[in-house]
Design a protein that fits this description.
About 35% of the residues lie in helices and about 25% in strands. By secondary structure, it is α+β, with helices and mostly antiparallel strands. The strands form 2 sheets. It has a 4-stranded mixed β-sheet, with helices on both faces. It has a two-stranded antiparallel sheet with strand order 1-2.
Length: about 150
C-alpha cells in the first residue's frame, strides 16, 4: 500500500528517503513526516494581541500627526512659517511605531534645526525638518506627503 495515498485530507506530507547502515549493507527506508498540522491550534489570543498592537500604533500615529499640526499652527502665528508637508510614517497607516519620528519638509524656514528642536519638544518625538527649496527629499515629500498650510 502506498502510504502517501492514505493521507488525511488537509494535511501535508513529505516522503523522505533516508539511508540506514545495517549489518554492513545499506538499505533505504521511507519515512513519512507530517508537516504543519499535527494538531490544530487556536490563534484567537494572538490575533487579538496583534489587533490591539495595530490599534495602539494607529492611535499613536494620529496623535503625533494632530500634535504636529497644532504645533505648526502655533509656530506659524509667531514666525510666519509657510507651507509644509508631513511625510513618512506619520502619514502612512501601519508604518508608525513606538520609536517613529516625524518628518516634515518646509518652505520659508529660516532655521530648520531650531524648528526641529521646538517641534520635538512640543510633540514629544524626534522631528526631522528638511527645507523644500534645496532638498533631495522635496519631491518625495510633495508627492507622498500631506500638505499643511497655516490657517488664516
Amino acid at each position: 500500500m502506498d502510504p502517501l495515498s492514505s493521507k488525511p485530507p488537509g494535511l501535508a506530507y513529505a516522503a523522505v528517503l533516508t539511508a540506514n547502515a545495517d549489518a554492513g549493507r545499506r538499505r533505504a527506508e521511507e519515512s513519512i513526516l507530517l508537516l504543519g498540522a499535527v494538531m490544530p491550534f487556536d490563534t484567537s489570543m494572538r490575533d487579538a494581541a496583534v489587533a490591539r498592537e495595530r490599534a495602539e500604533r494607529e492611535a499613536a500615529r494620529r496623535e503625533a500627526f494632530e500634535r504636529t499640526v497644532s504645533a505648526l499652527e502655533e509656530i506659524a502665528r509667531e514666525t510666519g512659517l509657510g507651507r509644509a508637508y508631513l511625510f513618512g510614517s506619520v502619514v502612512r497607516p501601519g508604518w508608525f511605531g513606538r520609536n517613529s519620528d516625524v518628518d516634515i519638509a518646509v518652505e520659508d524656514a529660516d532655521d530648520s534645526l531650531s524648528l526641529a528642536v521646538r517641534l520635538s519638544r512640543t510633540i514629544g518625538r524626534e522631528v526631522h525638518v528638511v527645507p523644500l527649496d534645496d532638498s533631495a527629499v522635496a519631491e518625495h515629500a510633495r508627492r507622498e506627503g500631506i500638505e499643511w498650510t497655516p490657517e488664516s
